[in-house]
Amino acid sequence: MPRIAYVNGRYVAHADAFVHIEDRGYQFADGVYEVCEVARGFIVDMPRHLGRLNRSLTELSIDWPVTRGVLPIILREVVRRNHVTDGLVYLQVTRGVASRDFVFPAGTKPSLVVTARKADPAAAAKRAEGGIKVLTVPENRWDRVDIKSVGLLPNVLAKQKAKEAGAQEAWFIDADGTVKEGGSSNAWIITRDGVLVTRPAEHGILRGITRTTLFEVAAKLGLKIEERGFSVAEAKAAREVFISSATTIAMPVVAIDGAPVANGHPGSITLSLRQAFFDVAEKSPA
Ligand SMILES: Cc1ncc(COP(=O)(O)O)c(C=O)c1O
């Protein structure tokens, strides 16, 4: 079954899906993206993802590449054409193609690319049963990580370092020793009293859509959340630790820098959050 991508108004074979060498995404990382989970035939939390896309575009003064009403149709079509029931749909908007110059080009149309990929929910469930390991790295990213920009080189390097250390995620640590977020996820702990703790998202981290929906999941389960910073030491001593993102939902963390978290097994509260997530999340039929 050939994969299909959407590129600037056309549905094309994935193998023939190209953007121009002078696309500003390629030259300057001058673009933004979103990733939505596809689960059981639904696109999860699509309105929230498109709301955050709007914010990212506005912050960078990039126009919408298509109208806001048309983008969900394209996302659904790419999911449908790729027969994705479980997996993800990825969209990327860049400032467009223009002769290489740092300043914004005049009259350039933004580029839009949409792809979709299948994933195996059984494999994800198995990963959650075992939990993942995290490696901490010093924060070295720019100040506007609240924008979901395609400029992800520090994240690439951090996650590669984590992989080489046998871990599956890297955590960026602030100069004051507090945990910011993962290379592609938000960071959470659960205290001995069963309170969920995650860093405020006003600045310094990406306001994860999964993070936002988990606030609602926690409320449904009667769990308290505190939005505050926490240190690596507090995380290592926590009852449970987990990360959140559209592709991992709530994923237990069982070790930080080689030291086991709690008893080294996924925690039950994290697993119950993970279990309840789909019922609470907004589901748009694909
Ligand atoms: C740096 C970073 N933080 C947090 C997240 C989690 O965001 P979301 O829950 O919207 O996937 C991501 C997702 O890719 C990310 O790249």
TrEMBL record:
The keyword Metal-binding does not apply. Pathway: Amino-acid biosynthesis; L-isoleucine biosynthesis; L-isoleucine from 2-oxobutanoate: step 4/4; Amino-acid biosynthesis; L-leucine biosynthesis; L-leucine from 3-methyl-2-oxobutanoate: step 4/4; Amino-acid biosynthesis; L-valine biosynthesis; L-valine from pyruvate: step 4/4. Its cofactor is pyridoxal 5'-phosphate. One of its GO terms (cellular component) is cytosol. Keywords: Amino-acid biosynthesis, Aminotransferase, Branched-chain amino acid biosynthesis, Pyridoxal phosphate, Transferase. GO terms for molecular function: branched-chain-amino-acid transaminase activity. It catalyses: L-leucine + 2-oxoglutarate = 4-methyl-2-oxopentanoate + L-glutamate; L-isoleucine + 2-oxoglutarate = (S)-3-methyl-2-oxopentanoate + L-glutamate; L-valine + 2-oxoglutarate = 3-methyl-2-oxobutanoate + L-glutamate. One of its GO terms (biological process) is amino acid biosynthetic process. InterPro entries: Aminotrans_IV, Aminotransferase-like, BCAT-like_C, BCAT-like_N, Class-IV_PLP-Dep_Aminotrnsfr. Signal peptide: none annotated. Its EC number is 2.6.1.42. The keyword Transferase applies. Pfam families: Aminotran_4 (PF01063). Belongs to the class-IV pyridoxal-phosphate-dependent aminotransferase family. PANTHER family: AMINO-ACID AMINOTRANSFERASE (PTHR42743), AMINODEOXYCHORISMATE LYASE (PTHR42743:SF11). Acts on leucine, isoleucine and valine. This is Probable branched-chain-amino-acid aminotransferase. It comes from Mesorhizobium tianshanense.
